[in-house]
Amino acid sequence: MPEHRIQRASRTAKLFVVVVCLIILLLEAWSAWRAYEMALDEATRDASNMALALTQQADQTFKEVDVVLLGVQEHLDYDGTKAAGRQRTHDFMVTSVAAVPQLAMLMVYDETGLAIGTSQATLEHRYIQDDYFLHHQRLRTNQAYLGKPMRSRVSGQWVVTMSRRINHPDGSFAGVVVADIDLSHFQRYYEQFAIGRNGAILFGLNEGTVIYRQPLLSYSIGLDISKSILQGYLTNAEQGSFELRSPRDDIVRITSFRHCNLYPLFVAVALAKDDILEDWTRRVWIRGIAVLLLLIVIGYGGNRLVAQVAGRETAEMEAITARTELERLYRTLEAQSQKDGLTDVFNRRYFDAALTAELARLNRSGESLSLIMVDVDHFKRYNDTYGHAAGDICLKQVAAALNGVARRQGDIVARYGGEEFALILPNCNAASAAAISGRLVQAVRALRIPHEGSPVGQVTISVGAASLASGKGAQVDARDLIDSADAALYLAKEQGRDRAIQHEYPRLTLLPDIPGLR
Ligand SMILES: Nc1nc2c(ncn2[C@@H]2O[C@H](COP(=O)(O)OP(=O)(O)OP(=O)(O)O)[C@@H](O)[C@H]2O)c(=O)[nH]1
Of 52, 270, 331, 487, which is most buried with the most CB atoms under 10 A? Predict the structure, then answer.
């Protein structure tokens, strides 16, 4: 596999692990966010529904009392002020208080504020100037009036008053009939609602007075909230919801409020965000830990995977490098195994193989072939005179000169051994071989390498050639051909060296005079 594709595989593995982790994280974050929104929406809906139920309960509570007040008004109108009439009114009031649980007490006051009737067993003669009394004295309306919460003069309990004006037959102010409504009635009812640890229910008069708060705080009954933010919402809408951080306890609450239909009252249900999100927070923690563990497992597994991929890549890359290096080494070795280390012409082993191959080919093609053996003359003396190192340099020069002559495609110049060279010349007949042999002798002479030990004063060679006119079906033996060339070389030595002798194989044809040699 190519290197870049291997690296890409490792990068893809890493990217895959990172993308999987990111997708899991994003999905989890998205799901947590959805759950968060749903929890808040649900809480807002719950608070709104609770507010609706509580306003209906408040309307119902006051309506029942109002009906009693109207009944008392009627009794006062028709029963008259005589003793029997007063008794009937009293009985009605007693029965009503017994029948309506939220109704703590009924009182009737005349136009001077003097108590003239009660649902109690005994009538205390006292005067009042409470706000509801003053309200009815001032305003000639047929509306029931809801007073601020107060402590009952009789029981000492917190009550809220509901009152109606009594008129003389001419319509002038004749006094008030007032009902005390027990606030514990609301408490008992509100306690049934689950509003969490920090939730609250606020029940009050529209003009901004708290009648009751669940849970009850020491200061909350009668508290003036006309300047509060809630009051702002109350004056502007029939119902609604908002989120607010309480300046009193620093708790963030979602508040739903609603006005009563029949009376100037409101109910606000506030649920603390922490309470609402308690479940959500717990679930987020648990899921968060689970996701974290999952990511650790994926990360660990992914890392192992990436490491394995990377390991495999490294191994494959090392294998590629090793293979390339091996191929390079192999080529070098191959080249080295074919070449002679000193002279850089082909070596003996290559020569042997090449000659066998050429002879086999020759048998098929029928072409001519020449083999030329070359020996440096008096080389022992050269070594003795100039040293072995100089001898080596001389051999290199001679080899290069031979190479320069046998330049045709397919010509092979080889070192046969010591100071002896051999040339295989395919498709080369006797005439060509003669010419080349002569050029070889000339080429070495042209080097003009001084040689004191030589009669001619310079390095020369002797050449022996053997040529096959046509090799087809000749079944020539390599050894025979070499011997033939060697014999020619021997003759060249014998005849004085620095010359070439040629045999035309298999006959020994002497070519004693190669043209242009001397
Ligand atoms: N410097 C060097 N000398 C070599 C090498 N191979 C063979 N020789 C020397 O070549 C010489 C060959 O000597 P001989 O075989 O007696 O022949 P010659 O002295 O050339 O005499 P003729 O061939 O009769 O002219 C020996 O002294 C070898 O040591 C080589 O690789 N380097």
Answer: 270
Going by CA atoms, what residue is nearest to atom 7 of ligand 1?
A: 418
The CB density around residue 31, as the number of other CB atoms within 10 Å, is 12
Quote the CA–CA distance of 120 and 97 in Å, as a whole number: 9
Q: Which residues contact 454 (CB under 8 A, 6 or more apart)?
A: 377, 378, 381, 382, 460
Residue nearest (by alpha carbon) to ligand 1 atom 1: 391
412-417/158-167 β-pairing: unpaired
Q: Hey, where are the domains in the chain? A: 1-335, 348-504
Ligand 1 within 6 A of CB of 378:
yes
Q: What is the DSSP letter of 511?
A: -
What number does the ligand 1 atom closest to the CA of 383 have?
Answer: 1
Whether the CB of 473 sits within 6 Å of ligand 1: no
pLDDT tops 50 at residue 216: yes
Q: Could you check whether 1-335 and 348-504 share the same CATH topology?
A: no
Report whether the peptide linkage leading into residue 101 is cis, meaning its omega lies within 30 degrees of zero: no
pLDDT at 218: 77
Give the chain's mean pLDDT: 90
Decide: 106 in ligand 1 pocket, CB within 6 A.
Answer: no
Determine the Cα–Cα distance for residues 31 and 290; give it in Å rounded to an integer: 14
CATH architecture label of 348-504: 2-Layer Sandwich (3.30)
**What ipTM does the predicted assembly reach?**
0.93
179-210: per-residue pLDDT in tens? 999 999 999 999 999 899 999 999 999 999 99
CA angle 280, 239, 262 (to 5 degrees): 130
| Residue 395 CB less than 6 A away from ligand 1 | yes
Q: Is the pLDDT of residue 335 over 60?
A: yes
Classify domain 1-335 by CATH number.
3.30.450.20
